[in-house]
Amino acid sequence: MIGWALSAIVRPAAVRPAVARRIYVVVIAFPMTDMPMIDTPSPNFDDRKLPISMLVLHYTGMPDAPSAINWLASGESKVSAHYVVTETGEIVRMVDEGKRAWHAGRSHWRGINDVNSASIGIEIVNPGHEWGYRPFPDAQIGSLVPLMHDIVQRHGITRGNIVGHSDVAPARKQDPGELFPWWQLARLRLALPRPTRNLMDPHWSDGGFMLALERFGYDITEPEAAVVAFQRRFRPELIDGIIDGECRAILLALLLPKPRGDD
Question: pTM for the whole thing?
Fold first, then answer.
């Protein structure tokens, strides 16, 4: 997200369009090398200090695509992303992957404090919570998926390091938000799935939950914001910042040992 916002209580309607099967076909049929891109260079980048190990997804949080792209391309903004994906499915390339785009700001994930140096950033056009948050169109997700697939394969990024802006900056950000279809990406092994089977509440204290959340990867400096970010990602139907049995059970399942590449 380009702007600043944080909300603590959200109860969105379930939005799960049944397009995952068709998107899977898109991944197979359209390799990244065949995808058209629009080059709109941004001057806002510098050299990386870390190897690429993460992929961070944002929403633009501006009224429309031209406003967002123009802002990211402006030297005045001091922000950028490697790619922008519009609601109609166009992909705009703004910063070379070899360079450090300025998309994550003050952020932290799994011990990394310079997330910009370690990540590829994708801005997904959506007005966001400030300008009229809405579901992400099929055409947009249909372009995002092969772009992500190509990036993940080339850089060997694990599913646990495919994150939202709110995951790496929970006190400041809420994008890509509770309407973003993480479940579709998870079906295509482009995100960690939400655990749903054989869940067991470990009955941690709130302090124990926060330590487990930190172990998973979150910055827990502001505890309620970290809980909200976790819920926004893994339990988007109820985002209230309250640690409950379901949150504990989901986090425990996420921390259990997984096959290599799924952590």
Answer: 0.88
